[in-house]
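Researcher: Structure prediction, please.
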Amino acid sequence: MPKKALLSVSDKSGLIDFAKGLIKADFELLSTGGTQKVLEEASIPVTPVEDLTEFPECFSGRVKTMHPKVMGGILYRRGDSQHEEEASKLGIDAIDIVVVNLYPFEDTVAKGITGPELIEQIDIGGPTLLRSAAKNFHDVTVICDIADYDRVLEEINSNGDTSLETRQELSVKVFERTMAYDAAITSALSEGQKGAVLLTNRIDLRYGENPHQEGAFYEKYGEPKPWTVLQEEKQMSYLNILDADGAWNLVSEFPEPTAACIKHANPSGVASDNDIAVAFQKSYDADRLSAFGVIIALNRECTEEIIAKIIEQKIFVEIIIAPSYSDAALERLKSKKKIRVLQMDGSIEPSKQTCRTMLGGVLVQDQDTKVLTKDDLTCVTDTAPSDAQIADLLFAWEVVKHTKSNAIVFAKDQVTVGIGCGQTSRVDSTIIAVRRAGDRAQGAVMASDAFFPFPDSIEEAAKNGIAAIIQPGGSIRDGEVIAKANELGIPMVVTGIRGFRH
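Model: Predicted structure follows.
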């Protein structure tokens, strides 16, 4: 008796070639609905499932494959005398391969479809078939991903069957897929109030936060990894990825060519310019002392000129991250093998949520993607900032929201000149920004990621020549803070939102 394969797929990509391969390997094909029609139109021999079950598809296709002759053929244990006897008595033939990809529920949600049309995209039979076959992986090969067609055919053609190792691996893949599918349904029907964060595809890292700690990176299931390593003589570490994420998120917020130097997930220098190579040099010059063992992020193609600047100035760079690289830049980078080179795929939407494990659970929140414009700002002082100052204030605000709290950023002409961050008091961050800026604070603007609890930071800024301030507002002492700004003649605008990052 020929082996049997059940094919019931929503995505028909690669189906014809795979089915032909199974026929060539002497499989009998079983199928339903649209899959059956595609196979018949390609003149591929196929048996309708209802011929096997002797029961028609019903309820508008909601019930097709959930029948003892199908489920039993998948689930009974081969070699188990009791199961073999029951299968023979009930006329149930073994089904050896199950190929199912599910109704495109996630795509339907992404299109904004709701109501009955969305409900009809909840696959019931598909997950049941997949889970049944995955449970019985000792005897059954299960495929939920069209990318696995070729490897399965190759093993069948070479060995007559798939290996147990492959079947178990495919089984795990199925349970990942059905778990993610159920999570997507839960999230959609609860309007985002419930769901799950699923992790897959572990990548071992050089080490964790410290060399004595192990580290690993997992992809979020259903979200393609947006970065590719083009050069990596030294394996990535936990902190490399953490810093690269912060660097890329920062420069991605700017529409104009922007470069950032990042240390320990905080910017040491950020600059925008019409020329990305000039932006890079300005970002490095903003704080050369801190930019040692630095992550460099660019939101434009990395050019040979930028690599030449890095080499000529002997900058110790851990990672360069950019959306693309010129051939000449990559060629120059070959002489600096210890620099890890990451390329970001700008066509992949960034994750809409951030996740952290805490207290035995997971904290989940939306990404802070709020971008302010001039119209979002409210001037609260007697004197308003100039247009040039507003441009710098908005630039400084975008930087400060990517800087660890308490965060203070000084900027002038679209370049950071002093950054203070990670302190337990806001005035301490201001003092650090003053020290790093030096004379460059004269005429610069100041951004604070949260309100000023006291006027002391305003006084410190004024002593060092800060010309305008942007902050969220909302302190019970706003009146005192605004009065101090008026007394010192410093224009101040408030955003109405804060930009904490911990």
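Model: The first strand starts at residue 3 and ends at 9.
Researcher: Thanks, that helps.
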